Amino acid sequence: MKLTRKLVLAKAKASDLDSVKKLNCWGCNLTDISIFSQMPNIEVLTLSVNSISSLSPLADCLSLCELYLRRNMIPSLSELSHLRPLTRLRVLWLAENPCCGSDPSQYRLTVLRCLPRLQKLDNQVVTEDEIAMALMEGEEVTTPPGTVQNQLSTNGHPDAETENDPLNYNMEETNKIREELGMKPLSRDKFPSLSSPSTRETRLSMKKTHIVDAVLLLLRDLDEEELLVVHTATQNRLQTYTLDSGDTLHSGDTLHTQKAADIQH
């Protein structure tokens, strides 16, 4: 069944689509929700217990804060790529869809890696520890092939930067954290292209990037004493690199002593 303009206005008791901010279409046997491409002001949307398989019409609902999709026919978590531009989205209920798979833990980490701004997923509060773990262990969600092709046909530039490009999104998130901590932002070349063939080196580079993201997130929660422990461990780790570069043991000991003195002060 297709959700029509007439049905939306009747359910929302509104005169036009732009004025609709909340809509409940629970159990309406919906398969086509293309109407939402014309509803940029929707904030709370209930679509549970339907037969929806694609989330692409929601990509332009930039005001969306809460989205309920429990018990639909969403086949793959790649559909979540359409929700990346929705920077206000804080609540998502996606349980009981085919895309959830048989591993609840991995499913949750993958969703949170794709949408780290979520505050509640499947009626369960999201913690900062979960976000940090998701950045390291969640699977990368890529845009469905059909959508990528449509973007290339529309833009004519395969490398064109768009708001919902997963690569740009990760850069934005990471550099925001780095800016808050007084660090220099990373350039685009630090992020391996998602369109490049997946090699061992590429995967290793991506893993290291996400580890850095997780560390930066965790630093926010540490107090002064805990930060001092991290600082000391970091300095010791840096000393190892110095020694490996050819410095003598004596100079390394001197460096360690000086750094320990600096930490105490």
Please state how the strands of the largest beta sheet are arranged side by side: 1-2-3-4-5-6
- The low-confidence parts are 148-169, 192-200, 248-252, 254-264
Query: How far apart are the first and last residues' alpha carbons, in Å?
Result: 69 Å
Q: pLDDT average, as an integer? A: 77
**Coarse structural class:** alpha/beta
- Spatial extent as radius of gyration: 23 Å
Described by the principal axes of the CA atoms, the overall outline is elongated
Helix coverage percent: 40-55%
Number of alpha- plus pi-helical segments: 8
Summarize the helix and strand pattern as letters. HEEEEHEEHHHHHH
The largest pleated sheet is described as:
6 strands, mixed
Subunit structure: Found in a complex with CFAP410, NEK1 and SPATA7. Interacts with NEK1.
Pfam family, one: LRR_4
Region (Disordered): 245-265
Function: Plays a role in cilia formation and/or maintenance. Plays a role in the regulation of cell morphology and cytoskeletal organization. Involved in DNA damage repair.
Features of the shown structure:
flagellum, elongated, 42% helix, alpha/beta, 265 residues
Characterization of the model:
The chain is of the alpha/beta class. The chain has 8 helices and 6 strands. The protein has helices spanning 5-12, 104-114, 128-137, 145-155, 166-180, 200-219, 224-244, 249-264; strands at residues 22-24, 44-46, 66-68, 91-93, 120-121, 124-125. The chain has a 6-stranded mixed β-sheet. A hairpin with a 2-residue loop joins strand 5 (120-121) and strand 6 (124-125). Helix 7 runs antiparallel to helix 8 (249-264). The longest helix has 21 residues, at 224-244.
